[in-house]
């Protein structure tokens, strides 16, 4: 369905707008989701002209889509003609007056019916100022059109700062108007979790504490901090990956089945799921969470984190986190969820492993203590996309022996190439007012509360860093976390 709207992008000269937003909007235009009735105002301090802005937008499309095989070469220019640049310092009230004038003119010119999307592609410290001025200077339309606010992570550094940030925008926008982007929720394999769980009798009936022994989530990166040291020194793995992406995956895996698959039912169940994660005491944090920072690799060819450009020589920032969470959601009550993320690990892989229980007596062996291999469902999220199901089957001719086999499904490169980029899907959803793949404030708030206990416990102690070798799968303590429970990580590329 075609959607008409005026986009006002704050941070129109920035990296996010260039690399993600302009290409995503172009893809929506190329596919006909945006037709001729849309306009974009880009704002930032740089004194760009409209003509220069058009060149930048076209260059962003070219950089993102060189290999797309596009045939209609006029399309990027036609698309870029919908873009208007307004030089603007977000602290200056007068500029909102000028912005309103331009917005009203474009609304009239393109017949946009008062539909506005405000995209804050800027540092969160500006969010409150912008939201306040948008309201005071009457940039929010009050007819039948919609006013929607899209914001990017980080949503705070902890619960108090996240609440302050949320309070600063909620004076101007209601929760249903706020679209918080967690780009993991825009990834198709993450969106597939609900379909796999609730669209298959096989998995739906087995998704319970009676049948699931434990859940494992790994977001492993093989690269180090690269050129993001400035940001990473203020964030670390907990804030960068765990509080947002991993907690979103946890809630999708542990939520109860919604009665209807629509945004409000789904989000209600996700909120319950994150609220039902056990809150730890400081002692429990010490038992259940592990942090790490990478050192050199075994051949000393890669730098330790502390020696990377832009990092502190004594940095206490964690580049690795592993932890055990416990859900108290009714159907999975007590099931442990082992989470792990880190930089400079053995292999890049994001995957979820569902390890099923193995209580049945092994009737195929004379030895009553010989256990059957456990059934494991693996969801491959990236770079591979697909599933693997491990189960036992008869092999060989000598007696009745069982061995595990792997049933694999992987998306081909061509199938993966056809999946829209996360930003394209998320902007399309925001245009349609579909909040399925956006984080609700209550989810964000509860995830911070859970992580703040961990963070505060860690901040009171000095870690013994570096504590893992680049190219390994993290500190030994991350393996011990499972070994002590009689378990092991399913994803172990060093095996
Ligand atoms: N880049 C990504 O891939 C990515 C991914 C996820 C989340 N994010 C988040 O998205 C936000 C933007 O990231 P980014 O990488 O695009 O940052 P960036 O490249 O530094 O862009 C910041 C933008 O803000 C503008 N700006 C700064 N101060 C301003 C002011 N006082 N008034 C008006 N405009 C001002 C800058 O333009 P002028 O200098 O011309 O004013 C620029 O357009 C950040 O919160 C970031 O954490 C980014």
From TrEMBL:
The active site is at residue 245. Keywords: Carbohydrate metabolism, Glucose metabolism, NADP, Oxidoreductase. The keyword rRNA-binding does not apply. It is an enzyme of class 1 (oxidoreductase). Pathway: Carbohydrate degradation; pentose phosphate pathway; D-ribulose 5-phosphate from D-glucose 6-phosphate (oxidative stage): step 1/3. GO terms for biological process: glucose metabolic process; pentose-phosphate shunt, oxidative branch. The keyword Transcription does not apply. Its EC number is 1.1.1.49. Substrate binds at residues 183, 187, 221, 240, 343, 348. NADP(+) binds at residues 45, 153. It catalyses: D-glucose 6-phosphate + NADP(+) = 6-phospho-D-glucono-1,5-lactone + NADPH + H(+). One of its GO terms (molecular function) is glucose-6-phosphate dehydrogenase activity. Catalyzes the oxidation of glucose 6-phosphate to 6-phosphogluconolactone. Belongs to the glucose-6-phosphate dehydrogenase family. NCBIfam families: zwf. This is Glucose-6-phosphate 1-dehydrogenase.
């Amino acid at each position: 369905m075609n959607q008409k709207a005026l986009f006002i992008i704050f941070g129109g000269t920035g990296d996010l707008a260039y690399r993600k937003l302009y290409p995503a909007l172009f893809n929506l235009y190329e596919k006909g989701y945006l037709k001729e009735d849309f306009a974009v105002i880009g704002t930032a301090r740089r004194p760009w002209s409209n003509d220069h802005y058009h060149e930048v937008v076209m260059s962003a499309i070219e950089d993102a889509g060189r290999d797309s095989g596009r045939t209609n070469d006029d399309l990027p220019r036609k698309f870029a003609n919908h873009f208007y640049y307004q030089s603007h310092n977000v602290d200056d009230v007068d500029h909102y007056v000028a912005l309103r004038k331009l917005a009203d003119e474009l609304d009239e010119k393109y017949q946009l019916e008062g539909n506005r999307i405000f995209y804050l592609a800027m540092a969160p410290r500006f969010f409150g100022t912008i939201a306040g001025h948008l309201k005071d200077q009457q940039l929010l339309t009050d007819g039948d059109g919609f006013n929607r606010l899209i914001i990017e992570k980080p949503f705070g550094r902890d619960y108090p700062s996240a609440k302050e940030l949320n309070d600063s925008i909620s004076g101007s926008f209601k929760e249903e108007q706020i679209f918080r982007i967690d780009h993991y929720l825009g990834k198709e394999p993450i969106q597939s979790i609900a379909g796999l769980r609730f669209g298959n009798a096989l998995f739906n009936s087995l998704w319970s504490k009676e049948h699931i022994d434990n859940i494992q989530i790994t977001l492993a990166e093989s690269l180090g901090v690269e050129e993001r040291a400035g940001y990473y020194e203020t964030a670390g793995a907990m804030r960068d990956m765990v509080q947002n992406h991993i907690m979103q995956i946890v809630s999708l895996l542990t939520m109860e089945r919604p009665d209807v698959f629509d945004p409000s039912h789904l989000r209600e169940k996700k909120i319950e799921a994150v609220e039902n994660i056990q809150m730890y005491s400081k002692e429990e944090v010490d038992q259940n969470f592990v942090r790490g920072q990478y050192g050199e690799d075994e051949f000393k060819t890669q730098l330790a984190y502390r020696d990377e450009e832009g990092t502190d020589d004594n940095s206490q920032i964690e580049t690795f986190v592993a932890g055990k969470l416990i859900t108290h959601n009714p159907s999975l009550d007590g099931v442990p969820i082992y989470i792990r993320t880190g930089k400079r690990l053995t292999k890049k892989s994001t995957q979820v492993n569902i390890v099923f229980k193995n209580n049945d007596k092994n009737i195929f062996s004379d030895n009553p203590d010989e256990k059957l291999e456990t059934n494991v469902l693996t969801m491959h999220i990236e770079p591979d996309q697909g599933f693997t199901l491990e189960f036992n089957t008869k092999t060989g001719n000598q007696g009745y022996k069982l061995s595990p086999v792997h049933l694999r499904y992987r998306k081909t490169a061509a199938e993966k190439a056809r999946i829209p980029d996360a930003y394209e899907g998320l902007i399309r959803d925001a245009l349609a007012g579909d909040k399925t793949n956006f984080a609700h404030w209550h989810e964000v708030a509860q995830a911070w509360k859970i992580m703040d206990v961990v963070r505060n416990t860690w901040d009171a102690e000095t870690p013994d860093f570096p504590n893992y070798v680049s190219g390994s799968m993290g500190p030994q303590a991350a393996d011990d976390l499972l070994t002590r429970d009689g378990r092991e990580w399913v994803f172990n590329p060093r095996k």
